[in-house]
Amino acid sequence: MRVLLVEDEPDLGKAIDRTLKQEKYIVDWALDGSEAWEYLDSHWTQYNLAIFDWLLPGLSGLELLRRLRAKNSALPVLMLTAKDRMEDKVAGLDAGADDYLVKPFGMAELLARLRALQRRSPQIQPQQLQVGNLVLDCGNRTVWHLDRSGNSQIIALTNKEFQLLEYLMKHPNQIITTDQIRNQLWEASADTFSNVVAAQVRLLRRKLESVGGANLIETVHGVGYRMRN
Fold it and tell me: How do beta strands 77-81 and 99-102 pair?
């Protein structure tokens, strides 16, 4: 689950960023509206959720929201603000905000609001994915392999391995490029080495092969990978 966080208050931004990453979200954190629009203008289809502060340097959160909706994006957006007047809430909702959280707030409430947005969003995929004999539960972050007798064996994956497998299983039989995987699974500011995707795929393959899931991930040489159904 990839989130765009736009918050110019360093302490609050760090706290939200840390909390989201602890909950296994992939987070891109922008400190001003102009930087956020650069992310959105070129990569908005990669995000599952967005958190906009209302008052930002450059473009305001409200202007970001208007521009996003002008692109016909249904990206779920949670607005953060110190403004608690009814008129301000109405303005934010009319501009296309999906929910509204007034500062100060607790991180538990923030996470609950995001979970609610995920449940309501048409962009969110089904809770359970299956490709062949491999089943992935997005809700409890569990993966298991079914044998011919119907018995299941749970596969223990790291967070990044789970994210990679989930992404591939959401696009069965489609060629996913190395750049698409890198952009989806790592923060935009992350300093990754050139073969980080290949290394992650290799680790995931070993675990799938250990339970009889060999050859599920096909290498398309010079392009990327494909999850075979």
Answer: parallel
Full DSSP string of 73-85? ----EEEEES---
Structure tokens at 16: 């939200």
Question: Phi then psi for 71, rounded to 5 degrees?
Answer: -85, 10
Dihedral over Cα of 35, 38, 40, 44: its sign: negative
Residue 36 and residue 57 in contact, taking contact as beta carbons nearer than 8 Å? no
For the whole model, what pTM was predicted? 0.65
Estimate to the nearest angstrom the gap between the alpha carbon of 34 and the chain centroid: 21
Distances (CA, A) of 211 to 32, 134, 145, 206: 47, 10, 7, 9
Beta bridge partners of residue 177, listed in sequence order: 224
- Cα angle 23, 26, 30 (rounded to 5 degrees) comes to 115
Taking the C-alpha atoms of residue 147 and residue 110, their distance in angstroms, rounded to an integer, is 40
- The two structure tokens encoding residue 131: 């490709």
Closest CA to 151 of 133, 136, 128: 133
| Strand positions, DSSP E, 12-113 | 26-30, 49-53, 77-81, 99-102
The mean pLDDT values, 10 residues at a time, for the chain of 229 residues are 91 94 88 89 78 90 88 87 77 84 92 86 65 82 80 86 89 89 76 80 91 85 89
Name which of 59, 92, 57 is nearest 78 in CA terms.
92
Burial status of residue 69 (CB atoms within 10 A of its CB: 0-12, 13-18, 19 or more): middle
pLDDT score, position 12: 95
Return the residue matching tokens 């939200």. 16
Record the tokens describing residue 21, joined without a space: 């990453």
